[in-house]
Structures are given as structure tokens and as C-alpha cells.
Amino acid sequence: MPAAVFSLAFAAFAIGTTEFVIVGLLPDIGRAFGISVSTAGLLVSFYALAITVGTPVVSALTARLPRRALLLALMAFFTLCNLAAGLSTAFPALLAIRIVMAVAHGVFFGLGTTVAMSLVPPDKSGRAVAIMVSGLTVAMVTGVPGGTWLGDLMSWRLPFLAVAAMGALATIGLWRLLPALAAQRSAGTVLSQLALLKSRALMPLYAIAALGMGATFAVFTYLSPLLIHTTGFRSEGVSVGLMVFGLGSVVGTIGGGRLSDRYGPKLSMNIALGGIAASVAALWLTAHHPALVLVNMFVWGAFAFAVPPIMQETVVLVARREAPEAVGTAAGS
């Protein structure tokens, strides 16, 4: 596997840490700004909304730019956003920073997926995507619980500053390892890029991904208060729970890519979505039993994070057939 794929994975690690570490920091952020945990939860829900709404537009607007330069610019911007988040003094400012950061996240992942697939033979594309996305899932195992512990020990600001440092390292790694990557040969117009989002072949895929991952993050956003107030964990236990979820997500990411390569995306996606539904239901039924909660969190993480590599590869393959000039927009949506 080319080293450039692993540089993309490290960038994904930094992005994944800042995306998910916020879950363990919500109580501290709420206290710092004098707001409720549910209001602080907007930092998660608005982040997801910004990815959904902003990514297709920005992906279309930047489709004609050289891909290497765009990836570097996105990672540098992401780094600055984390630095600003760690220094923010008002909740509205922090929320605004998270929103623009989310758009950079979405565009980076969409573009990074197509780049990772272009660096390997077609029969290894699923594994290349899985390796890149595994950076995000490794963040769930180490970055998120570590950041939660660090925030609980010192300040909620420190994890953001640490991610800014990681982002700087990731930018350097991409600059050193990524080969020259031209813009798409026939990027089309912005309108033609956005028109792809109405594709009958792609819209069902987007809907499936939104519902499947939406179910996961609707619960995951408030996992910290659930584990503390219902399961009876202390703050240190939340970090353990997040680490267990992250271990499952690593298994799911690697397994999802291999399943998709071997059995095709349709069967693999059905298994993953069914597993999400079953594990979330089991979490609700066992919320008062700490050991069972941890088991369910591992299984839930595995099924939930099998979805992204399966979905990303499927969307790129469909977009290449439907409209090759808009692959980046499709993958980033």
C-alpha cells in the first residue's frame, strides 16, 4: 500500500479526533459557558448538518482545483480552525468554528477517498478506502478517550490545541508523501456537479447513509450523560466506554472494506445497517448494566463504522459510471 494512503489516514486521525472528542467534553463545555448539555450538543448536531449541507456545494466549487493543493489547503485550514476553537471565549464563536471546520472535513474526506482509490489497483480500492477511514476509527480508540481524559483532567480547550498540533503534522506528511495530483480532467460546471446530487442512482445511497449514521450519532451525541447518569459510570468510565466503541469501530472499518471487496456493497450494507439497529436497541435495553453496555458499545461501533468504507466505495463507483466529472462531489456528499 502506498505511503500516501497512510498519510491520508493520519490526517483522518486528526479529523476524527476533533469530530468525536467533543462528545466527552460536552458537560465541561456546558459548565464553562453556562449552558445546558443539550445546548452544548449543538456542537455535534450542527457539525453533522454542516457536513451534509455544505460539503456538496464546496466540493462542486473546488472540483477544478489541483487535488494535491486542495488537500493541503483543507488540512491547513482545519488546523487553524482547531487552534481557534481551543482559544474561543464565547459559545457562538465556538459553534461557528465547528460549522466551517465540518465543511472542510467533508470535502477532505470526499476528495481523500477518490485520491486513495486512485493510488492503488481497482481490486485494492476497498482496502485503500478502509485504511484511510481507519485513521478516523483509530482516533476513536486513542484520540477521543485520550482527549476526553485530558479535557477532564485539565481543560476542554487542551484537546483542540492538541489536534491543531496533529493537524500541522498531518499537513507536513501530506506535503511530503502525496504525489502530484491534477484536477479532474473534465470537472464540468458547478451546476452540473450539483445536478449529480439529484441522481436516481445516488440519492437512495445518500438516504441510506444518512439514516444509518444518523441513528448512530443521535445516540452517540449524548453518550456521556447516558453513561454517567443511567449506567452509573464516573467521568473516567466515559473514556473507557469511548475506547471500547472505538475498538469496535476499527474492526468494523477494516471488516467493512474487506466485505465490500469480497461480497459486494449491497449485502455488506444490509448486514451493517441491521447490526446498527440491533445494537442500539440492545444498548437501550441494557443501559443499567455496565458490562453489557460495554459489550453492546463494541458491537455497535463495529457495525456503525462498517458503513463508511462500504458507502464511499459504492458512491465513487456509481459516480464514475453516471458522471465521471463529478466524482469528488459525489464522494464528499
Automatic annotation (TrEMBL):
Specify where it is mainly localized. Answer: membrane
Q: Where in the cell is it found?
A: Cell membrane
User: Organism's domain of life?
Assistant: Bacteria
What's one Pfam family here? MFS_1
Swiss-Prot/TrEMBL keywords? Cell membrane, Membrane, Transmembrane, Transmembrane helix
| InterPro entries, per database record | MFS (IPR011701), MFS_dom (IPR020846), MFS_Efflux_Transporters (IPR050189), MFS_trans_sf (IPR036259)
Drop me one GO molecular function for this one: transmembrane transporter activity
Protein name stated in the entry: DHA1 family inner membrane transport protein
Name the source organism: Paraburkholderia caledonica
